[in-house]
């Protein structure tokens, strides 16, 4: 599957949380954080997933993605094998027009960072921009979770 | 799961193939070849698997292993993402006493290498040694498939 996503920072002065319909705690680690072959173990609420991603295409918008649900108990045995730098965040699902924004508030060593993502069907697809949406950072590797796991936001 | 395996070179003068009950072609690549968190994509005959292994324990005999069967078509989309150095081999299953030896004959850049492995229930378990069994190489990283994918036998 090809994944088309656009990613943004947030304007810190506006509260997006009151528009969220759901929030879920996420803990994730990387069996490989290399962007050419990222292998991620994620526990998301009551579920867990193993996800493999390839390198982005030239525009930075599209990326190969393979994902399988696995039992949470198995994810818990895999997390200790991961590279140092497990990521903890709460994901808010925020409906905006016809789309759902996934807004991730980071904790631990990435405390203070908030990122919003919207998934699109094509690279050209239009979407409504909420007032709290800030600078676009799509394709910028320093905002990949795999990068943040090794280079925490706090240390910037 | 903990995996207990002992690995051996073969005495080149003895033919093990006439004792084999089955042979299967294997093609495999690594999404991570680091022995601390090996992630392997394997197509084995008509089936495919994603396998994650941790580091060996001190004795080198026991290693954490997690494995899931995946569709061959998905393995084929994951192989191009793998690190350079895909491994090709034929695995012969050779019954010896109460155990099955898995004897791997390598091709491509590891042409000429043959390795035999036997899986045990405990580190102390006894097993019958066939006449073709050579030097034990259990726990030696230069005979890990993940290492061979990057440092082929031919170049030695």
Shape of chain A: globular
- CA-based gyration radius of chain A: 15 Å
Quote the CATH topology of chain A: Hypothetical Protein Pfu-838710-001
In which range does the helix fraction of chain A lie? under 10%
Number of strands of chain A: 9
Structural class of chain A: mainly beta
Q: Give the spatial strand order of the biggest sheet of chain A.
A: 1-5-4-3-2-6-7-8
CATH architecture of chain A: Beta Barrel
Write structural notes for this entry:
- The structure is a homodimer of 156-residue chains.
- Chain A has 156 residues and is mainly β.
- Chain A has a single domain (2-155), classed as Hypothetical Protein Pfu-838710-001, CATH 2.40.320.10.
- In chain A, 8% of the residues lie in helices and 49% in strands.
- Chain A is built from 2 helices and 9 strands; from the N terminus they run E-E-E-E-E-H-E-E-E-E-H.
- Chain A has helices at residues 72-78, 145-150; strands spanning 2-10, 22-32, 37-44, 47-56, 62-70, 87-96, 99-106, 114-120, 133-136.
- An 8-stranded antiparallel β-barrel of chain A has the order 1-5-4-3-2-6-7-8.
- In chain A, strand 3 (37-44) and strand 4 (47-56) form a beta hairpin.
- The longest helix of chain A is centred in the middle third of the chain and has 7 residues, at 72-78.
- The mean pLDDT of chain A is 91.
- At the A-B interface, strand 4, strand 5 and helix 1 of A face strand 4, strand 5 and helix 1 of B.
């Amino acid at each position: 599957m090809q994944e088309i996503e656009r990613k943004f920072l947030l304007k810190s002065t506006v509260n997006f949380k009151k528009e969220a319909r759901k929030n879920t705690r996420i803990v994730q680690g990387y069996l490989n954080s290399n962007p050419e072959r990222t292998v991620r173990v994620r526990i998301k609420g009551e579920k867990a997933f193993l996800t493999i991603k390839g390198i982005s295409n030239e525009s930075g918008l599209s990326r190969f993605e393979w994902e399988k649900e696995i039992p949470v108990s198995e994810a818990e045995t895999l997390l200790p094998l991961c590279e140092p730098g497990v990521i903890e965040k709460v994901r808010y699902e925020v409906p905006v027009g016809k789309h759902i924004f996934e807004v991730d508030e980071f904790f631990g060593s990435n405390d203070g960072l908030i990122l919003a993502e919207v998934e699109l069907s094509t690279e050209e697809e239009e979407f409504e921009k909420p007032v709290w949406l800030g600078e676009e950072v799509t394709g910028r590797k320093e905002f990949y979770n795999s990068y943040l796991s090794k280079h925490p936001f706090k240390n910037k």
